[in-house]
Amino acid sequence: MKKIIILLPFLLSVTVFGQGFLHRDGQKIVDENGKNVLLRGLGIGGWMVQEGYMLQTQPFASPQYQIKQKIQDLIGEKDTKEFYAAYKANGLTKRDVDSLAAWGFNSIRLPMHYNLYTPPIEEEKNGEITWIEEGFKMTDDLLKWCEASKLYLILDLHAAPGGQGNDVAISDYDTTKPSLWESEANQKKMIALWKKLASRYRDNQWLGAYDIINEPNWNFTGSNKNGCDENSNGPLRDLMIAVTKAIREVDTNHLIFIEGNCWGNNYNGIFPLWDDNMALSFHKYWNYNTKESIQKMLDYRTQYNVPIWLGESGENSNVWFKDALTLVESNNIGWAFWPMKKIENIAGVTSVTKIPEYDVLLQYWKDSGQKPSAEFAKKTLMKMADNYKMANVTVKPDVIDAMFRQVQTNDTKAYKKNTIPGKIPAVYYDLGTNGYAYSDTDFVNYRVETNKFEDWNKGNSMRNDGVDILPCKDAGSNGYQVSFIEDGEWLQFTTQVKKQAKYNAAIRYSAENAEGKLYLETGNGKKSNSIRLPATGGNDKWKTVILSNLELNAGENKIKAVFEKGGFNLNYIDFSENKKGSSKK
Q1: Domains, the chain, ordered by start
Q2: pTM of the full predicted structure?
């Protein structure tokens, strides 16, 4: 398509910076110029649709309506509205979008809750469909920020009217009310919502696609309640066709993503496709990262000459992330990971800090007992809402590194600037994957059998690698220690050595019963002597041993701490110049 440049400020900005509408070209997603576009995105889970596991209210409050009710029971309706206003205002801002762009993402998947755009059917009169401006305003703002940062925005109806699945937290499904599949009024509302959205955004080129229904999981005729054994999926197909028809009445520009049953993956009965600007989405969690794990979707791509997109994935270890993204990118499949902000987690790109007072609320909601005062509860919740600001979250560089740099290379790089002489915390081992930056026996989380997760990280703190990290209270600690060390494991540290000299390494460790043993590799195959780490009598009883006379060259040195015998905890290694040539302590 030939571009016509009109020298008006608004149109010029679209023409110069826009890439045209994303669309299907055979089995590829391309821009206006026919250039292949590999979407690398993040789902902004929790902003419009809260799920209990993200707020640590699961299982006693999993879907959003239950979470909201528990909050309202504590602080009342007025203060609950104030909390949610702050939560949403802080949960996603231009700074968040700018950060995602800086980290390497080129797209955002927005999980939408319908009730921010239109009321529930119980609140409508005489079958009318009315609109709420809040959701549209939130979407407008996000789209404006995406355009400024040159990110595509994908609209994802995550919570459809009535709820679309028996996994209730995902879609905020209230089982006491008619679901999407049991209510014609809910289906009409969903169709009308998509037509309204398409009419509003039909001309915006940074609106990447419409993901028209997230993770339907419903048994229409089968016995599996999440629709995994469905063979026809007739109601799902009919509804998606109706939504597509409504969108196309007002918008012929934008790409449409569809999802199968069984959390997006069961496409039985969905074909043949009914639109020529469409792509198939699938979701992938916890399974093996082999070509066989995506073969069915690859077959669909070939058979129906249609693009495929990994619309949701994540919640695993860095090794799994690297392997999954290497797999899909090598097969020209774009992706959107999940989520952005979650309380006290290691697997997301950020983590929201939990204050001790919030644990008081969680304990009350879980076990009842002494009810916290409304004043205490509101103050706690407003502080938690404040912690959702990008300025207050903890960014996870190891997760970001695994999703982008590690997909391209096995090279390692420093997690922090480690200078010698100086103290290097054990948890500041290099960024990189297992076998390159570190070696750990258990390093990836698979769930191949139903509800059976493999052990991969016993610490679940600070970093998302296989290395087991726990909080540390020892003096001189940065707050974390490497624990559950097993025989033969190792950590590598990229260091900057100020001058060529001999150095002593003070090793700070604890060990309840077992005697550990380690040595350092200092490059070019050079190994130090092995040093014994006698039991200290407790995991919280710390001692220091000195490894002497390490020859280090000036400049960058990659130093590997090799654990010949495990069973101990490692706090830090403190390097100092050995001016006497030898030292004992």
Answers
A1: 9-399 (3.20.20.80), 412-577 (2.60.120.260)
A2: 0.93
